[in-house]
Amino acid sequence: MPTNFTVVPVEDADGGNKSAAAAGDSKPVSLGKLFDNEGVENNVEVDDSPGESSPFINSDNDREHYRYYEGKNMALFEEEMDSTPMVSSLLNKLATYTNLPQGVREHEEAEDGVRRVAVMVPQMGTFIGVYLPCMQNILGVILFLRLTWIVGTAGILGSFAIVSMCCICTLLTAISMSAIATNGVVPAGGSYYMISRSLGPEFGGAVGLCFYLGTTFAGSMYILGIIEILLTYIVPTAILFGGQEATPNDMRVYGTCCLVLMALVVFVGVKYVNKLALVFLAWVILSILATYAGVVKTMIEPPEFNVCLLGNRSLKNEKFETCAKTEFVKNHTVNTELWSIFCDSTYPNATCDDYFILNNLTEMKAIPGLLSGVIKDNLWGDYGPVGTFIEKKSQPSVQVQETPTTTNTNEHYVINDITTYFTLLVGIYFPSVTGIMAGSNRSGDLRDAQRSIPIGTIMAILTTSFIYISCVVMFGACIEGVVLRDKLGYSVKKNPVIGILAWPSPWVIVIGSFFSCCGAGLQSLTGAPRLLQAIARDGIVPFLQVFGHGKANGEPTWALLLTVGICEIGILIGSLDAVAPILSLFFLMCYLFVNLACAVQTLLRTPNWRPRFKFYHWTLSFLGMSLCLSLMFVCSWYYALVAMVIAGCIYKYIEYRGAVKEWGDGIRGLSLNAARYALIRLEEAPLHTKNWRPQLLVMCKLNSDLAVKHPRLMSFTTQLKAGKGLTIVCSVLEGTYMTRRNDAKTAEQNLKAAMAAERMKGFSHVVVSSNLRDGFSLLIQSAGLGGMKHNAVLMAWPTRWEQARDTSARRNFIETVRETTAAHQALLVAKNIDHFPENHERLKEGSIDVWWIVHDGGLLMLLPFLLSQHKVWKKCKMRIFTVAQMDDNSIQMKKDLQMFLYHLRLDAEVEVVEMHDSDISAFTYEKTLVMEQRSQMLKQMQLSRTEREREAQLIHDRNTASHSAMNDKAAGGAPDRVHMTWTKDKLIQERNRHREGMGVKDMFNMKPEWENLNQSNVRRMHTAVKLNEVVVKKSKHSQLVLLNMPGPPKNKKGDENYMEFLEVLMEGLDRVLLVRGGGREVITIYS
Known about the structure:
The protein has about 1100 residues and is an alpha/beta fold.
């Protein structure tokens, strides 16, 4: 039976003051560790490098690192423990998080480089953490100050439609928000975090700033509500600019003072705001309960508030007590206060207002009660322009013509202060249903955010929706119509209309609405700076970086100052009714994108989309998004356009200048799906000629530092990108991927940096291959994907192929030409690429010359047009040359070519060059002789590397030695005296030498006589020489020359001569672009 044992290390007496550990408490140690000291004493060398053949045995360097895992059951995975921790270790880390799970925390810390310290805070449940904050934010100033006016103006049915639309919109948004909030832990940041991480930094930043502006303008609205309550109901004597009513200037002055006071409270500390929040919420709930109690009381005893009508017009009754023209006092008829208001004296024979004389005064109850049947009169709306009287249509009235006298008395009637229409009321009402994000904004303080946010938010929306709808019905069923349309309650002795309905006193509503506005205003001034700070710290909007800083305790001081400044803009507007539609638009845009985020994530079906909240569907999100968009234009079409323009500008700014963030957002997933769909569609049908554009595979050469050797190749690629096609910049490293993977990553980063420097849009790719030839072949075959594969290869001409120590450069180039031809891909070869212009250069004049020798698809015509679209080549004119043979009609060729260019919509000068058949010149034979001799020498001698290094010195010796000395050395047969570089003078000398010294000729088996030369090579060289003479004559001073590139010979035995032909063809020209078509038409005359 095998025995299991454990070797326990025992410390000696001098090893320290620790006692020996018990065997059961210590970690097992390998035998290799115990004998390590012995190996050192015996001078035994220990291999420090871990052997690849034994990956499970620890080396000396790794023993400390892996000592914990020795003797464990998971030894098979011990080398991967750093990157893939044990499940038990992972769960232990996840169990100790506070606000962020491990993955999110590490991601956030990696972005800003700051280690966050987890602070344990009391965790709140659904009721305290979500339900009550949402209730407090939803119920507010509009309910107490404007809802009765909305019911009276729009009628019960119109108001029901307004409330229903807005509540359904927020409910659908809450469903979408619940799905997003339960798809993982939502860190502190709430709605902004959800939108930005679901839709990406561009949408997140744009919508986050819109949400910030909405929250800031909400603070302005609440402050204006405070001042309206203060100057209308609490301290009316504080009005500064005269009159009995608060003017916009009063609102501005007192609003600014209130804003400064609130900002100081927020600056001192948020803890005071949080302490007051419960008090404010208690008054709001008390006010609502008082309203319901008042409705019940109307069924028993209606309140003692009356409204006075003159004819059918409602009067402001703050200056009189009796609704009559005269009254009996001690058996005498006495004129009332109304008489002195509408007449010039108190005497019976006074001159009075015509309308006052012709119409009777009627006094009726302002609140007839729930059982009075007034609901029938309030079913339909009563809209009117500014300045119209609040009238009871069913009341008889004698109309009179307006006179100066009647105009002076109009201030005593209740009139419309703004033009009313349905869409205006929607914009004013919508802020009363905002605040649904209050729970998600506190996600970091919740005990179980994934459970609390959906339940608390939806329950709060359902509760407040019931309150609003029931209030609409109750107001319409209890209160007289003329009183409902009296916005500020002037007809009921300047009491809030909802206040005269409440029980036991209107002051409950006054105090409740005042505290509600104070609490909501402080919450806005507290939340908005933190939202801006979160956006600034994300770093997606560069110019907002300064607002990410604050006090030592994290309070956003700079963000608070900006918030106060923007809030002051809203206060300077001076009207609650004008500010409300502005913030409605910003909130609606935020809700729209919450619905969009949920719809996108649901439709994409990404693997990470697994919300715990199951009661959602993409159709609900789409309906909510459509409703938000509709409400935006219903509220105010011009404000909607302004909000969209602001969001669009922020989006484009972040896209252009913002930091690159990868948050796994839905827009990224949508892009992937769209790209996949587009690639599949591109594969379904062959590409039409009209849609052809150069999709470039750019072959870049790297230097020893892995930097781009020819950066002008990038510049030229950018200048060719008027076709808006694909660009893949690639390079090849020799070796194996396992040994050079870090070099490959570095090279790819260098390629990306070079592309960024040239502002080139495209992809970079570096492959590691055993040799350059295989690497180029691999890229030509496999670069790209599906329909987005390259159709053209761009590379630089191998300039020093003649002086190269081996023939690999020549062979690589020729094989690349062959492979692109076989793959039906175009090939562009740029000679003297380092002389090409950079992107910042502007060529003032010159021409782009096209030498159209053979037609291989029209690429030669298209490339100059694409180049002329770029600023570098824009002022260069295009010239097209073609060659006519003896049998061609040059005049007709020119006309036909001009007509062809006209149909192609290309502007270019046309010239036909005649090349007559002529005898092959001696120079051509000599060039051919040099070429063949060099080829034979290379084949027969197979020069070693050392001999080729000595070539330059040997050439120098040949040039300085005498003719006889050269013959002597040649007779000696020294193989290291081979002549490798040839000129015309040297050619003549060498020819004479060979004729005189036949020993050398016999040794190399050469036949230098012209009649024995390969006639095919002679003809090719003749063409190259003659064509070069014509091109140099016509285009020597042009900015760029485009030439048809002849293909390599089918027989590989002629490869040595191919490069010579191309060199002769381009000799004497500076910038040359050799073009070889891909075998298909790329340009068409048809539309």
